[in-house]
Amino acid sequence: MSGDAKSKRGLGEVSAGLVQYSVENLVPFGPIHPALKEPEYFKLVIEGERIVDIIPRIGYVHRGLEKAAERRPWVQNIYMFERTCGICSFVHSITYVQAIEGLLLHKLPERAKYIRLIVAELERIHSHLLWVGLMGHWAGFDTLFMWIWKDRELILDVVEAIAGNRVHKSLATIAGVKRDIPESLKPTIIERMKYIAGRVYFYKDIVDTESTLLVRTKGIGKISADRVETLCAVGPIVRAAGIPRDVRRDAPYAAYGDVPMDVVTKSGVDIHNLMQLRLDEIIVSANMITYALNHMPSGEIKVRVPPVIPKGESASHSEAPRGELFYFVKSNGTKTPDRVKIRTPTLANLPSSLEMLKGHTLADVPVVLTGVDPCFGCMDRLSFHDVDSNRKWTWSGEQLRQYGIQYYSKVNPR
Amino acid sequence: MSDARFEDIFLQIEKAFSAVAGSKEAESTDSLIMRVQADKLIEALTVLRDKFGIRHLSTITGVDVGQQVELNYHFWYGNRIITIKTDVPKNDSKISTSISVIPGAILYEMEVRDMFGVNFLGHPWMDRRLLLPESYPNDMPPPLLKETSPEKIRRSLGLEK
Questions:
Q1: A79 touches chain B (CB under 8 A)
Q2: Least C-beta-crowded within 10 Å: which of A362, B48, B152, B159?
């Protein structure tokens, strides 16, 4: 990419007057190193310690799934789209099949609806636990990370018992699910939900009282409810801003219309509230799973459908752990789709997360960037440019994490 | 999944759209599809935002429909997905940007530009790629158009004969 800076503008400025940067405070593109986590690249424009602007460049792991889908049969695509994400895989497959079901006249069996809900909520619990644990890691509180990830294993074991796999469940299929949840598994799942809820109350207490965590999270990464809405953000970040928006309640899919649920909201976005909100949502999910298991109707779990999907277009959305996940499907009446479009919640939340960073210090970068639970999560290579001294350098994610911990141990010695 | 609360609003949206030369294309219990001319799009989006408070754009989907690229603006409102469709010609595809009305559209427009070559006039980052690699050949049509195939891209990059 050329260094012609005159035309480059910051993301947050788009709506407000289009402020331009001069040549000297713009960071040139550095080399990319997709090391440990998913690759992602942000250019940070800083003034001393303070972040003025962030310019994103994504697409390093864009593998052309939408194009590939146009050559594969409808059913084969389910398993490909499931691999879009390694954490919230099930919700991808059910949103895709829901879009297809919009073109079919077949009714989804009641029991399949409940199985979809239960597995989707199990996925939400393990995804939220993963995130809260990671948050502890980035803030330098590794004990919390280890505790939480140990508890997360319990959920993954349940998922494995239901689907046969820990991550890619391969459970959803058009107009149904592929495996039933056996009655013998019910007591184990309910017992574990109780245990997880108990643990989550304990973690909520830690998040509220532990001083190292409070100083890293309270008041960090603020964004107003109006900006969140203007930038079309989705998921926990919207609910933390106090807007009760949730696809599960607003446009119920699967069995969500039948199972009682609370939409958790908080009074304003900061990392502390995002942690509390996700922990609260785990408790809500655990209750939903218990209710669904106790009220699951018996019967078929799948309807046979022809391999050719009728002509038409259909859009479908669902509440993934990170927010609204959107699929658009167009069929021209053949065995393969004409067009499939995926919009993942991370893309929708990117503008807001970059705005959350503005005005904070470099030490807050790991915590805030992780704050929206980005599915690319990668800060393995950030390049820095100090506007004051015109110095440029590059850090790995680990170096940045250490810098954050040292910075806060200086300003807040215990 | 229909909800009586929203029925009135959908009727009003239809009426308001006929004022900007829009027309209803399809409706079901969970969706509403409207079509407008490309030059009336910003007007239509402004009506949605100001009159009905609909400002959650889920995404913009481009679809190759032969001579045209069809742009679908999907809004999430209540229990429905409202889709605004508009067409731009494929060989000279440009349309004015919607970020003045919906700032959250900034990355979605870049994605459509990368994948379909649609130029969003007035978008500040139109000279920059978001998803496509820098190595994507400039003489190739954008990847999601039907005339592009993985084999053609590989040949163009010299990876295949």
A1: no
A2: B159
